[in-house]
Amino acid sequence: MYGLGIAKGLTVTLVNLFRKPATVQYPEEALPQSPRFRGEEFVWYEQRCTGCASCAKFCPLGIIKIETHPGGTNVQEGQSFAIDVFDIDIGRCMFCGLCVEACPYDALFMGSGFERGTYRREDLVIPVEELRQAEKRPSTWFRPQLEAKKYSPQTGQPLSWEEVGR
Ligand code: SF4
Ligand code: SF4
Fold this sequence. Notes:
The chain is an alpha+beta fold. It contains five helices and five strands, in the order αβαββαββαα. It has helices at residues 4-17, 54-58, 98-102, 128-133, 144-148; strands at residues 39-44, 64-70, 81-89, 108-111, 125-126. Strands 2-3-5 form a three-stranded antiparallel β-sheet. Strands 1-4 form a two-stranded antiparallel sheet.
């Protein structure tokens, strides 16, 4: 019948007009994130890090650069290596988390940020100084000890190096 198609089309429009939107007005609003979110900024605890470079070796893209010298004062493993350079080029990172999986000392964690936009690629390298000074809100991804505590990097307090180990 003539006009039936138009009526059907308008019904679809009408139904969708009153549906609850699935999207939000970002950046004014944000969707809730999982505590396991694999964010961009990484959380690194120098006190736990021995400079073993397992994270760098396991990174499929080779974007973690580590330089050490003997005679460090790392608390956990005791006077092994001091870290001179620990840079992560997140401009090439695919956030697979293999570096975090590879860390035997719970020194490296994924972060929870996702807003590090910039105009220059070199600004996407996180240098060791930034990692040292950053607020420590580690993602619970691949860290069951944090999940057991029901920790959330979005709502919880920053954690010290003593609190994040197994
Ligand atoms: S998340 Fe993956 S790509 Fe990014 S630094 Fe770690 S291992 Fe490399
Ligand atoms: S972060 Fe972990 S895997 Fe990487 S150098 Fe330090 S202890 Fe080794």
